[in-house]
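Sharing a chain and its predicted structure for anyone who wants a worked example. Both blocks are below, sequence first, tokens second.
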Amino acid sequence: MRKHFRMVAAAAALGALLVPAAAQAASYDVYAGPPKPLSGVPQSADANHFFPSKLKVAKGDTVAFHFRGFHAIFAPKKGQAPPPFEIADPSGTKVSGAKDAAGNDFWFNGQTRVLINPLAAFPTGDGTHDGKSADGSGVPDGEKPKPYKLKFTKTGSFTYHCPIHPGMKGKVTVVKKAKKRDGSAKVKTRIAREVAKITKAIKKRADFRPSEANLMQAGNDTHDIAFFSFFPNRLEVKAGTTVTFRNSPVSGEPHTFSFGPLDYLKGITDTLIAPEGGGNGPPTLVFNPLAAFPSDTPGSAWSVTSSSHGNGFFNTGIVDSRAASPPPNQIKVTFPNPGTYHLICLIHGDQMAADVVVTQ
């Protein structure tokens, strides 16, 4: 989701990886995303990975998490899972007033709204972590957000997560004796090895075309890497063909397959998240229902034409790869008429685009 929110990957040098903060305490740097742009990989690829993913510190040490992309930090209470990023509105508020370009009501009027989970979106905790309660950064603000600092005050192993990208996690092991913690050379070497491993994996997966006929896939991901592109980015089929649109089988990224006039689609992308209220606390972050829900009634036979919903709009709604989440991993759509049908991902914007070319 980094590109929609315009989180630009920083090119800052690694800097000091272990900086003494006091006689018995130290500060470590961990990077959410690559510390600097990966070399020789496609522009559409990124790493959903913490560098380093494992760290050994002493009790009382602080870890500064630096954001290199659209990520967040969440260290849950011991034994609990990280929060999902999207949730159904707990107030039960329904979607209302959503109309298509022809002036007709969308089917999802009356459905419960989709929100960004406030536990993931906003800071929580007091900046010290012992596993007795959760601590989190919330979604960082701006293109160059300040690091999120978390002091570890109890020995043991603590797992932290990016609530935006399921599967993106790291571990901090807290030891009693300072002499047993990781030194700067070890941390620097570990980061270099992880960067090399991620870079190799991206290059290996970049040249991908689905083996199945009449299929387009969003990304070719793992839990550590993501491609913000469709494979293939041009699919040619005969009129009357049913095409399968699938999210990468393993991925921490949600996507949509969305057709229609580009200005109309970009308007949805530009209003993807709408804040409401927040006078005496954080606002409610509402996911645009035109992106979150499929444009057509679930269970019906879906097709795309140049006149769909008055202007050619058709949206799959969110597709993802999380087994426990409501959105599906794939959907099927028929193209009855010849033409070129342009699509984008409403979550990641028009830089993630493709064409379905339908011939007679």
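Comments welcome. The chain has two domains: 18-93+119-203, 208-359.
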